[in-house]
Q: What sequence folds into this?
């Protein structure tokens, strides 16, 4: 539909895909240019990550979360977070094993991880009345007993929800009682607004695995560099799978990411992160105020690149509403793109400048009227 509209000459405002439009900080780009010229940085990397990369992640966890990790066996490199989210299932999930997958959720948990390992998806609904957090009380204990992995992701894509340390403790207690591993997918830990600071699951319990990456924090989605940290046996399993499937993220990219991570001197965001987040924060404010002004009640997220909102009154189906928007040249993601519990919702990505967001609001107002 979008292509047809483009052919008709309609100028499309894409607010669908969650890929930061702002550029990677110069400090990181300049480091990359210097590092790529060094001949040993052009060789095969080690799939577990270069020593200096693992030490930079270790230091980042210390200054950012006050967590002491061992760079030798509690940190490993990833070719972006997505790779770790998928490969961790190859470590643990045998055919028929249950994996607890939040819904709506990042589709890789169900597809790239559980299904490709012939695991069994157990859907964990994220409902608005529960602030888009799982309700452990309603999950049958037989299911929890059989579960191997649970994916959790806060700040959350697509809902923008956040999790308190109290909730993380409840999740970790359940994991301990029922003996499953939590894969805490934390790529939006730095994508936060105002004074909200996102926690790490490992601050509560280090017996799990946490995945993060440079993609969102440094606007580096195309560079493909991430990391997994946590329990050394889990990390060792992930390293085994990876050592037989990939040869790691290019050394010069790891070194550029080290430069970015080293900018953190405390739990506060350094300027290279804060400057971009201020821009996204302004866009969020304009979008959410604009939607409310035209009668579409929408909450302001405290984190992430997304605004997740119920379809306007009178609309009955996410996809049908998305089609109406495309007819006016505005592209959003239907909630159902993230699972059945996304029905009735749409996701805006804050990836356009303010003037485009305002133009999108004018077009949306026309539809609502
Ligand atoms: C929830 C979630 N997890 C993981 C990723 C993967 O990010 P990357 O592979 O770029 O680190 C994304 C990217 O959009 C995401 O939204």
A:
């Amino acid at each position: 539909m979008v292509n047809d509209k483009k052919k008709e000459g309609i100028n499309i405002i894409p607010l669908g895909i969650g890929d930061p439009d702002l550029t990677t900080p110069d400090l990181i780009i300049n480091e990359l240019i210097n590092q790529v010229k060094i001949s040993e940085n052009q060789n095969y990397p080690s799939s577990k990550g270069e020593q200096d990369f693992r030490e930079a992640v270790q230091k980042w966890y210390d200054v950012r979360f006050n967590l002491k990790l061992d760079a030798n066996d509690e940190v490993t490199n990833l070719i972006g977070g997505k790779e770790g989210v998928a490969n961790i299932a190859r470590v643990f999930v045998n055919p028929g094993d249950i994996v607890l997958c939040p819904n709506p959720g990042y589709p890789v948990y169900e597809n790239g991880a559980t299904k490709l390992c012939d695991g069994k998806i157990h859907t964990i609904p994220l409902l608005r009345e529960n602030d888009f957090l799982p309700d452990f009380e309603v999950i049958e204990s037989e299911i929890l007993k059989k579960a191997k992995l649970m994916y959790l992701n806060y700040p959350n894509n697509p809902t923008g929800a956040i999790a308190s340390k109290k909730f993380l403790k409840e999740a970790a207690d359940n994991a301990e009682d029922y003996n499953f591993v939590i894969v805490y997918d934390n790529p939006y830990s730095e994508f936060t607004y105002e004074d909200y600071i996102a926690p790490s699951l490992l601050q509560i319990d280090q017996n799990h695995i946490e995945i993060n990456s440079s993609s969102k924090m440094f606007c580096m989605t195309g560079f493909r560099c991430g990391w997994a940290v946590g329990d050394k046996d889990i990390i060792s399993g992930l390293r085994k799978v990876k050592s037989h499937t990939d040869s790691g993220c290019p050394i010069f990219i790891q070194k550029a990411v080290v430069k970015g991570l080293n900018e953190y001197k405390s739990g506060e965001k350094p300027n290279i992160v804060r400057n971009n987040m201020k821009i996204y924060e302004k866009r969020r404010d304009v979008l959410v105020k604009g939607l409310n002004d035209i009668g579409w009640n929408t909450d302001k997220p405290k984190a992430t690149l997304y605004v997740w909102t119920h379809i306007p009154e009178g609309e009955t189906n996410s996809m049908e509403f998305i089609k109406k928007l495309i007819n006016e040249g505005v592209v959003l993601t239907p909630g159902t793109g993230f699972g059945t519990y996304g029905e009735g919702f749409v996701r805006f990505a804050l990836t356009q400048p303010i003037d485009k967001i305002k133009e999108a609001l004018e077009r949306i107002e026309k539809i609502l009227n």
Q: What stands out?
A: The longest helix spans residues 271-293. The chain has a mean pLDDT of 97. Residues 18, 80-82, 85, 106, 153, 157, 185, 187, 213, 215, 221, 226 surround pyridoxal-5'-phosphate (CB under 6 Å). The chain has two domains: 2-18+270-368, 26-261.
